Amino acid sequence: MNLIPLFLLATASLLSAGTAQAADEEALAKAKNCLACHAIDKKVVGPSYKDVAKKYTAKDEAMLAEKVIKGGKGVWGPVPMPANPSVTPDEANKLVKWILSLK
Predict the structure, then answer these.
(1) Residue 96 pLDDT
(2) CA 12 to CA 31: how far, in whole Å?
(3) Is 1 annotated as a binding residue?
(4) Coil, strand, or helix at residue 65?
(5) Residue that wins the pLDDT comparison between 60 and 18
(6) Using an 8 Å Cβ cutoff, are 103 and 52 in contact?
(7) Which residue from 39, 89, 42 is spatially nearest to 66, judged by alpha carbons?
(8) Is 38 marked as binding a ligand?
(9) 34 belongs to an annotated ligand binding site
(10) Which of 7, 20, 39, 59 is the most interior residue, by most CB within 10 Å?
């Protein structure tokens, strides 16, 4: 039995699943109004998500998820990030993991 077509199909499935998951997180960011102040690759009011990904690592995930929910100030300039109490801890974790994957 030739395993190459099966391997290629499995690889394609994994790649498309990753792309779909990233689209889900981007849709979540849009639904939670994150994209009103942030963009993936350019500064808006807040830093670009790619700049955030360059600055932080996986060890910062819990701190960043807390900032998504509670807001923050002083790290990226004088404009504070407002609190987002409608974002659940699970959603904040998903958003942070997605943002950090944008390196």
Answers:
(1) 98
(2) 28
(3) no
(4) helix
(5) 60
(6) no
(7) 89
(8) yes
(9) yes
(10) 39
